Amino acid sequence: MSIKTATLNGVATIEIARPEKKNAITGAMYHAMGAALDAAKADNAVRAVLITGQPGIFTSGNDIDDFMKRPPGEPPAYVFMRALMGCDKPVIAAVTGAAIGIGTTLLLHCDFVYVSDEARLAMPFVSLGLVPEFASSLIVPQLMGNVRAAEKLLLGDPFTGADAVECGIANAVLPANEVVNHARRVAERFNALPPGAVRDSKTLMRRARAALAAETIAVEGEVFGARLRSPEAQEAFSAFFQKRKPDFSKF
Ligand code: COA
Questions:
Q1: pLDDT tens, position by position, 72-106
Q2: Residue nearest (by alpha carbon) to ligand 1 atom 32
Q3: Is the full-model pTM beyond 0.90?
Q4: Which value, in Å, is the radius of gyration of the alpha carbons in the chain?
Q5: Is the C-beta atom of 101 inside 6 A of ligand 1?
Q6: What is 3-177's CATH number?
Q7: Ligand 1 centroid – CA 128 distance (Å)
Q8: Cβ atoms 239, 246 nearer than 8 A
């Protein structure tokens, strides 16, 4: 199974574990992650959720083969992202390495983000002929302003954990061998706090932007779905698997 789950000392851990494909996330993995989040939300013994990856790789994002073959209808990423946005318990991310595409987008919906000093983050949607998703077109410019958002969302420039801290995406950068333990220690602090007050406070912190985020996700989803079938995206996906540079000169 490429998603491992475990609950220990009040913390439900969701570990992305498909290192042979750089932790690319398939439909089945999104479903497993969504189910794990829903189970954590329902379990009174769980006070916080920890999302992590493998040494050197958090996730290379959506499985590009799945992108190429996606049937019409709601993409499986929605199952996971809906559960993440609907989780009223604190969610802590330990970014163990590269976090690409949805690997960075999902961080925008976590409560605490700790990044390995070896990690690079990137949202290369445009390079793939796609557009930002899950309210990143709203949240990224809000967090860092339009001009820095343009570097990350239009050019798809990769950025370091230190940049992510400076932009307000992450809390702190840690040595690679400490990032998971540090994130776990933060998660375990919720064992000593009143869970109802934590849940209500988290819900209040997200209330003001929830409606706008939902509306943005719906609009992004329409455009994203159309772009997935575009010749630009098909050229980008084929180029990735053929290990060559895409050629957009004909569009
Ligand atoms: N979807 C499907 N397969 C993926 C993948 C993805 N998102 N990311 C990596 N893989 C596969 C590769 O095809 C390769 O498979 P192979 O061994 O059968 O050839 C394997 O994982 C290893 O990847 P590789 O590219 O050789 O590793 P690398 O260390 O040189 O580079 C990355 C690592 C993460 C930088 C690179 O794989 C990458 O850029 N991946 C795609 C990122 C992306 O664009 N994601 C979508 C964002 S919307």
A1: 889 999 999 999 999 999 999 999 999 999 999 99
A2: 60
A3: yes
A4: 17
A5: yes
A6: 3.90.226.10
A7: 13
A8: yes
